[in-house]
């Protein structure tokens, strides 16, 4: 029995190591492919390492992509989405967790129901709403005659400003905040906004960081909606759309290495943010019960 107990941790370590290798190998393959020369990518037998490290793929990606504009659009849209999701999720989560009002449970069920539908299901209605937005993009007060908000960078963020999962996550964590602390603060004259800002938010910081990272990654990698908006106005094109269009302008023998080089450049902000907030993210995952 004792020998069996001693072997179990090693089996666990082996499973964790195997999972880590499966996660890291595609990333390393992307990096190695970004350094391959013309004709090396996709050639059989497959070579993981390049024959020589060709930095020309990165120069080609920078030459073909209007990188400052794409980065600006991606950063602006991602910042708007992340900031809005954190604000609305924390406020709604506090209301659903700590305030008593008629219809609270019904509203919470509606929030849960929104998580059952894929986001792209509502892209066409969202697009039509933006097209007919009153007094924007040449529209009159009835939303006719122009292009609405589809030619604005705000359009990239509009469908994602509120997140049902974020509200659910914040509500579930805020329920654990002791009511006695809030009641004592109310007796001292604190209002609901003060309770949310001064007491509840500091205790939910790890979960906020977790939600911020998840939202940031999803918004940064959004492709379908960004492609739809960029067809209306190419000036609001984001990095994922621009990288996809590289395949139409690059030498076919270097298409994949140049695309991989552009992908490496695009994930650097996400990687830097994760490494910076890694401690808070891991703590938030543990506290919120996510797997």
From TrEMBL:
Q: Coiled-coil segments, which residues? A: none
Describe the location of the ABC transmembrane type-1 domain by residue ranges.
Answer: 71-277
Do you know which InterPro entries this protein is assigned to? MetI-like (IPR000515), MetI-like_sf (IPR035906)
Q: What is its main location?
A: membrane
UniProt-listed GO biological process terms = transmembrane transport
Membrane association type: Multi-pass membrane protein
SUPFAM superfamilies in the record, alphabetically?
A: MetI-like
Location relative to the cell: Cell membrane
Naming one, the record's GO cellular component terms include: plasma membrane
Write one Pfam family the protein is assigned to.
Answer: BPD_transp_1
Establish whether keyword Transmembrane is in the entry.
yes
Record-annotated membrane-spanning stretches: 12-35, 75-97, 106-129, 149-170, 207-229, 258-277
Q: Which UniProt keywords apply?
A: Cell membrane, Membrane, Sugar transport, Transmembrane, Transmembrane helix, Transport
| Family, similarity comment | Belongs to the binding-protein-dependent transport system permease family.
Which named protein is this? Multiple sugar transport system permease protein
């Amino acid at each position: 029995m004792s020998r069996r107990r001693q072997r179990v941790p090693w089996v666990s370590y082996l499973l964790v190591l195997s999972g880590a290798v499966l996660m890291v190998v595609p990333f390393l393959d992307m990096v190695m492919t970004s350094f391959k020369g013309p004709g090396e990518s996709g050639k059989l037998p497959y070579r993981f390492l390049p024959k020589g490290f060709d930095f020309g793929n990165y120069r080609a990606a920078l030459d073909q992509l209007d990188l400052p504009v794409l980065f600006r659009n991606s950063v602006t849209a991602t910042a708007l989405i992340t900031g809005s999701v954190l604000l609305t999720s924390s406020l709604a989560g506090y209301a659903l967790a700590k305030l008593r009002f008629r219809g609270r449970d019904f509203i919470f069920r509606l929030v849960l129901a929104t998580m059952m539908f894929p986001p792209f299901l509502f892209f066409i209605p969202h697009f039509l709403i933006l097209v007919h937005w009153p007094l924007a993009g040449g529209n009159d007060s009835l939303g006719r005659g122009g292009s609405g908000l589809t030619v604005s960078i705000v359009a990239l963020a509009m469908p994602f400003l509120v997140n049902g999962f974020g509200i659910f996550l914040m509500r579930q964590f805020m329920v654990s905040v002791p009511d006695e602390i809030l009641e004592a603060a109310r007796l001292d004259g604190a209002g609901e906004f003060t309770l949310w800002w001064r007491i509840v938010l500091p205790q939910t910081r790890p979960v906020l960081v977790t939600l911020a990272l998840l939202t940031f990654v999803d918004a940064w990698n959004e492709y379908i909606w960004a492609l739809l908006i960029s067809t209306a106005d190419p000036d609001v094109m984001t990095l994922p759309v621009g990288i996809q269009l590289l395949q139409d302008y690059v030498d076919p023998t270097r298409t994949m290495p140049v695309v991989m080089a552009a992908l490496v450049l695009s994930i650097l902000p996400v990687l830097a943010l994760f490494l910076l907030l890694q401690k808070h993210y891991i703590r938030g995952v543990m506290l919120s019960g996510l797997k």
